[in-house]
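name: query_chain
kind: protein
chains: 1
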Amino acid sequence: MKTLLNKWFIASCLIWLIVITSRKLGHPLPLINGYIDDAIAIPVIANLGLWFQRVVIIKNNYYVLSKWHVVFIVAYVSLIFEGLLPLFSKTYTADWIDVLLYIIGGVFFYRVMNKAVVKIRISD
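structure:
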């Protein structure tokens, strides 16, 4: 469960909530509105995947995603949201800056967030 309590995961979810709420209220945040959600998408998705692996599949808090897992997540999200969905819906637009932000988010997740949960033991 500590995977979902990661400070970067919580901060990303709060930022996403603020961005979505500001859009719904008709007051999108300049500069932040179009890109921050793309930058935090991979850390949120990968962290949820890491949590699922730790709790349901591997059942080990020391498990971390390999760089190839993160590369797959970035490639998959890029392909779906910047390649396929724009072909089928006018709601989506292909933007290579978004792909760059997915990559940056993936690198951030891999280097900063993708850590084993360590219990601190206090010896007597």
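note: Helices lie at 7-24, 32-57, 67-88, 96-113.
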